[in-house]
Design brief:
One of its GO terms (molecular function) is hydrolase activity. The chain has 223 residues and is of the alpha/beta class. It contains six helices and eight strands; from the N terminus they run H-E-H-E-H-E-H-E-H-E-H-E-E-E.
Length: 223
């Protein structure tokens, strides 16, 4: 019992004492000036989408990357796999890998977004696609992290726990716009999917908000 209490206290202290950094994801039509503005607002990571709903590589991703890369900070890529496009998780991951490779963009990790429960017919779909794309990512030496919310993960995967060894970006807002923003820290996190507070690398605390004249989602993360 005491061991559990000490573990809980350690988790709370690590969350409250964390040194948080800022990140955003950006629309595919962002301009260089808008990107420069976001960088000046101390956003250390910019997330760029790499996949279309048809499971093909998003050809605008290299342009976004080249528009922003000179302003400093890290460019991270994410993909949102879709179950209804007839492509396996492996195919969708391969499309992203080959697309970035053809654009001569090197990357070592990717964040997999699992959301929009209405897109998924059963938990087995999400679990199969996730395992499939991870296997292909491993073949290319690409590490995978997950982005999801507690409610989405429960609804889509039936709270599958087999991915808990991967780092988590936790989506936690109360709706779109500034009024739906939550605290820019990890406080209030409740374990799900086998992930604990030690699994957390980042949190989405605001979505569809205006910054530098563009609509972005905002994150905090720890290094």
């Amino acid at each position: 019992m005491l061991a559990k209490v000490f573990h809980l206290l350690a988790s709370v202290l690590s969350i409250s004492c964390a040194n948080y950094h800022k990140a955003v994801d950006v629309p595919q039509d962002i301009t260089q000036d808008e990107g420069h503005c976001l960088w000046k607002d101390n956003n250390d990571i910019t997330f760029i989408n790499t996949l279309t709903s048809s499971g093909l590589f998003d050809s605008t991703a290299p342009r976004v990357f080249k528009n922003l890369v000179n302003y400093g900070g890290d460019m991270w890529f994410y993909m949102k796999p879709y179950p209804s496009n007839g492509k396996s998780g492996s195919q969708q991951m391969e499309n992203v890998y080959q697309g970035l490779k053809s654009a001569q963009i090197k990357f070592s990790h990717i964040t997999v977004h699992i959301g929009d429960p209405q897109l998924w017919s059963s938990g087995s779909d999400a679990n199969t696609i996730s395992k499939d794309l991870i296997q292909r990512a491993d073949q290319h030496g690409i590490s995978v992290q997950f982005f999801t919310s507690q409610s989405n993960w429960h609804s889509i995967t039936n709270n599958n726990r087999s991915f808990s060894s991967y780092k988590l970006w936790w989506a936690h807002t109360n709706g779109a716009g500034n009024g739906g923003a939550t605290s820019p820290n990890f406080e209030g996190f409740v374990s799900f999917g086998g992930w604990t507070s030690s699994s957390l690398v980042g949190k989405e605390y605001a979505r569809q908000v205006q910054e530098c004249g563009v609509t972005v989602n905002k994150y905090v993360y720890v290094k």
